[in-house]
Amino acid sequence: MFRSEGCELVKGSMLAFTVEAMLDLAGERSGKFRMIACEVASHDAYGTPRDLFVAFFGVIADCLRELLGAEWTEEIETAWTTLLADIEQMISREMTE
Known about the structure:
By secondary structure, the protein is an all-alpha fold. It is 73% helix and 0% strand. The chain is built from four helices and no strands. α2 packs across α4 and α3 (50-68) packs antiparallel against α4 (74-96). The chain is globular, with a radius of gyration of 14 Å.
C-alpha cells in the first residue's frame, strides 16, 4: 500500500517520518516515536491492518541489511531485533487499549 498510494513527495515524507520515529524509539524517546502509535490508529480508518505496520518496519530492516551487506554486524542485527520487538509490542498494546 505504501508504494502504491500518494505521490512521490508524500511517500518520501512518510518514509522520513518513519525513520525519525524509529530513531527516536531506539534512542532518547523524546516523543517522535509516538508518531508510530498515532499513525497506526489513524490508518485504521483506511482499513490498514495493524500487522502490516509491523511488516513495514521489518521491510526497512531488510532493505538496510541488504544495502549494508557485510557491514551488517551481529550488533546491528541485535539492535534491530530489539527495535522491531518494541514496535510490535507498541502496536499490539494499541490494539488492546
